[in-house]
Structures are given as structure tokens and as C-alpha cells.
Amino acid sequence: MHFSSLITDVSPPDVTVLSAGQETVCLGLQLTDHSVSFKLQIDYFSDSHADSLITEASNSVQVEGLKPGTEYTFSIRKIAQNGNQSKATLLSVFTGKSEKHINDQNFFMT
Questions:
Q1: 21-69 pLDDT per residue, tens
Q2: Are 55 and 44 a contacting pair, CB within 8 Å?
Q3: Of 67, 74, 68, 69, residue with least CA distance to 18
Q4: Is CATH 3.40.50.720 correct for 14-94?
Q5: Inter-residue contact 28 to 59 (CB < 8 Å)
Q6: CA-CA distances (angstroms) from residue 101 to 23, 61, 68, 104, 110?
Q7: SS3 for 33?
Q8: Hey, how many other C-beta atoms are within 10 angstroms of the C-beta on 66?
Q9: Average of per-residue pLDDT across 85-108
Q10: What is the spatial distance between Cα 62 and Cα 39, in angstroms, rounded to a whole number?
Q11: Does position 10 have pLDDT exceeding 80, yes or no?
Q12: Contact present, 73 and 50 (Cβ < 8 Å)
């Protein structure tokens, strides 16, 4: 019987935060190994919300449907076509706070 580890020579992704809005985070990725086709698995969670997505590798990925004013932890892995995975790159990001709109009415005291 032959056993092989799923974590192999696939290098972990180099990830930066390009932007963080109220309900979205845009992650930038430095894709260095163009000879190997792979996907990205992005797991993310906060105290009250968790989700994940798998997407084709690209220079940027936008994660939507997040809660405003919340800290999220992201775990990003590369998955090669043969199923081998990189170690995860972890980072924390705060989404922007929700803005409250105030009426532009002037109130005068007489």
C-alpha cells in the first residue's frame, strides 16, 4: 500500500490585502509558478461567520458577503491539479464599518 502526503512541494501563496470594504475584501496574489496549473482554496471566518470558496488561480480574488466592522481570518492554499496542496498562508483583515447617514435637515431653536 502506498501513502503520500497531500502537502508537498507546492509553495504557499504570497498574499496581500488590496482593499477592504464594508462587505468585501480583495486579496492580491503573487503567482510565481506559471508552469503548474492550480486552484486557490480560501477559507475565512469571524466570531459569527465562516465560509470558503475555491477559485481558479488569478492575481486577485474578491471575497463578498462579509459583515461590516468585523475581523476576518483568511487561510489561503494552492491546490495543484494532482490534488497536492500548499501550506496555508494566514492573514487577518478588518472590514470597514457601516456608515450611518444623517438627514441634511437644519433644526433651529427659537
A1: 999 999 998 876 665 678 999 999 999 999 999 998 888 999 999 999 9
A2: no
A3: 74
A4: no
A5: yes
A6: 17, 30, 15, 9, 26
A7: coil
A8: 21
A9: 74
A10: 15
A11: no
A12: no
Q: What strand order describes the sheet that includes 24-30?
A: 14-20, 24-30, 60-64
Sequence-ordered list of residues with C-beta below 8 angstroms from that of 106, at least 6 positions apart, any chain = none
**Cell triple for 100:** 450611518
| Residues listed for the chain | 110
b/e per residue 21-39 (b: at least 16 CB within 10 A): eeeebbbebeeeeeeeebe
Q: Is the dihedral of CA 91, 12, 88, 43 positive or negative?
A: positive
Q: How confident is the model at residue 107 (pLDDT cuts 50, 70, 90)?
A: very low
The grid coordinates listed for 46 are 469571524
Which of the pair, 30 or 104, is modelled with greater confidence? 30
Residue ranges covered by each domain of the chain = 14-94
